[in-house]
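Appendix B, Record 12. Input sequence as logged:
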Amino acid sequence: MRLTQKKIEEIMLKILGEEGLPLIKELAAKDNISEFELANKVKKDIKVIRKMLYLLYNHNLVSFTRKKDKIKGWYIYYWTLLPDSIKYSYFKMRREQAERLKEQLSEEKKELFFVCPNNCIRLNFDQGMDFEFHCPECGELISLDRSEEKIAALYRQVKEIERELAQQKQEHKEENKTQKKKQAKKNKNKPLKKKTKR
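Logged structural output:
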């Protein structure tokens, strides 16, 4: 699976929020970019940029190298995205999303839901009884919600995520096989060391 810009942004936006989008785009465009250059391009204070970078670093999505400035004597940090870590985080997020959707699907199948005609609120049976089957927002009588469409949509979402995860797992197996073959070939071509007598 190719790591697209959209997938990179999806993961990092969960951590940084919308205000981090310009930083994400700059990081994706270039490796080993200095924090001062990032601050200039994004037009934010260096402290804000550092805070965002450390958040990404704590989630293992970026790495840095530091070099001492010969003139000023302080350290400058150069930042790079870690595509493998981003890929791992993306699939971890997708697995968690699939689990949540499965729980929601299970809930939809076993529970009765009631909805307000004005779409104010959706309540399960117990909550509906607590409010005597009236909307707590507008006071209208709530009616039984036909959830077949919602169940079908949740089921499709779960299947789509599971298909994506299965594809990723297969690609990962193939990558491992290729790496093992390369390593075996490398070891085969390596000359044996002769034992020396003492």
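The beta strands are 33-34, 62-68, 75-81, 113-115, 122-124, 143-144.
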